[in-house]
Design a protein that fits this description.
The protein is α+β, with helices and mostly antiparallel strands and 148 residues long. It has a single domain, classed as Aminopeptidase, CATH 3.40.630.30. The protein contains 4 helices and 5 strands, in the order E-H-H-E-E-E-H-E-H. Strands 1-2-3-4-5 form a 5-stranded mixed β-sheet, with helices on both faces. The chain is globular and about 50 Å long.
């Protein structure tokens, strides 16, 4: 698709990712997503957008850190491509751009988490060269114990 481009999403436009985020997580109220996004963009976080002309069709969050076992790295987070644009090879194109971008920023590796029951993503990431290194575990510290 000649009309597809990839570029970072400016902090001032971060709320444009909410419709795609809701496809991954429709449990978190929108007001809370907005609060969290405003906090995230002030941390070591960036979001990359995949566009068909000016229409946002995919997102990928990046969390930057330095880890003792891999060096400077980015955790790829909440990757999603709009349903209408899936199975067109755009996921590979998107990540190829992101790998180049990360190398330019001095990153030595990437890592990610994927939900256990999301088998389609497992196959995709295996094909991208990812390997299982460990388990991601979560403990909610809020009084209600809810995950949202």
């Amino acid at each position: 698709m000649d009309s597809v481009t990839v570029k970072p999403i400016l902090k001032t436009n971060i709320f444009t990712i909410i419709p795609l985020l809701k496809k991954l997580n429709n449990e978190t109220p929108e007001f809370l997503l907005k609060e969290r996004l405003l906090e995230m963009v002030e941390q070591n976080y960036e979001c990359i957008g995949l566009y068909d002309k000016d229409y946002l069709i995919g997102i990928c969050g990046l969390w930057f850190s330095t880890r003792h076992y891999i060096g400077k790295s980015a955790e790829i987070d909440h990757v999603i491509i709009d349903d209408k644009y899936r199975d067109l090879g755009l996921g590979h194109v998107f990540l190829k751009w992101i790998y180049h971008y990360l190398k330019e920023k001095g990153c030595e590796g990437t890592e990610l988490n994927t939900f256990v029951n999301n088998r389609k993503s497992h196959k995709f990431y295996y094909n991208e060269g990812y390997e299982i290194f460990g388990f991601h575990m979560v403990k909610v510290l809020r009084e209600d114990g809810g995950f949202y």
